[in-house]
């Protein structure tokens, strides 16, 4: 048996800001940066220029929207499984062009 004083469990405290940390809502940060009149080349919280992501973009199936590890080299459509590939083989070219247009692919199948 455990001693009575040691049966107390310790739980994590909910998130709280540190005592020396000042919480500022997004609107307040925006107003502060606008009023500071910083030079244009100095980055701020709202600067949209960011370096490109190092993580590769996720690719999704043009037909089902599932993650797509495969792409048809002829039609350039992405697909997730063999069933989708089989259905792509019987699609007319105008349907394939529609899928590619929705995805934003510029080179269309002729």
Secondary structure elements and their pairing?
Elements: H1 26-36, E1 70-71, E2 78-79, H2 82-88, H3 93-103
Antiparallel strand pairs: 1-2
InterPro entries: INO80C/Ies6, Vps72/YL1_C
Domain Vps72/YL1 C-terminal: 59-88
Pfam families: YL1_C
Write up what this structure looks like.
The protein is mainly alpha-helical and 110 residues long. Helix content is 26%, strand content 4%. The protein is built from three helices and two strands. It has helices at 26-36, 82-88, 93-103, and strands at 70-71, 78-79. A two-stranded antiparallel ribbon has the order 1-2. It is elongated and about 65 Å long. The mean pLDDT is 81. Residues 59-88 form the Vps72/YL1 C-terminal domain. Keywords: Nucleus, Transcription, Transcription regulation. Pfam families: YL1_C (PF08265). It is found in: Nucleus. One of its GO terms (cellular component) is Ino80 complex.
Helical content (DSSP H or I, runs of 4+): 25-40%
- Secondary structure class reads mainly alpha
In terms of DSSP E residues, the strand content is under 5%
Kindly report the spatial arrangement of strands forming the biggest sheet: 1-2
Largest sheet: 2 strands, antiparallel
Separation of the first and last Cα atoms: 79 Å
Rough shape? elongated
Radius of gyration: 27 Å
Sequence stretches where pLDDT stays below 50 over 5 or more residues: none
Look at the structure and give the mean pLDDT.
81
Order of helices and strands: HEEHH
Oligomeric grouping of the chains:
single chain
Strand segment tally: 2
The count of helical stretches stands at 3
């Amino acid at each position: 048996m455990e001693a009575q004083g040691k049966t107390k469990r310790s739980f994590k405290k909910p998130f709280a800001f540190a005592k020396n940390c000042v919480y500022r809502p997004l609107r307040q940060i925006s107003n502060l940066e606008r009023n500071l009149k910083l030079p244009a080349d100095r980055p701020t919280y709202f600067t949209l220029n960011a370096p490109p992501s190092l993580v590769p973009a996720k690719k999704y199936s043009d037909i089902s929207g599932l993650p797509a590890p495969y792409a048809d080299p002829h039609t350039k459509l992405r697909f997730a499984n063999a069933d989708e590939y089989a259905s792509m083989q019987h699609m007319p070219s105008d349907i394939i062009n529609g899928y590619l247009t929705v995805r934003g692919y510029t080179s269309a199948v002729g």
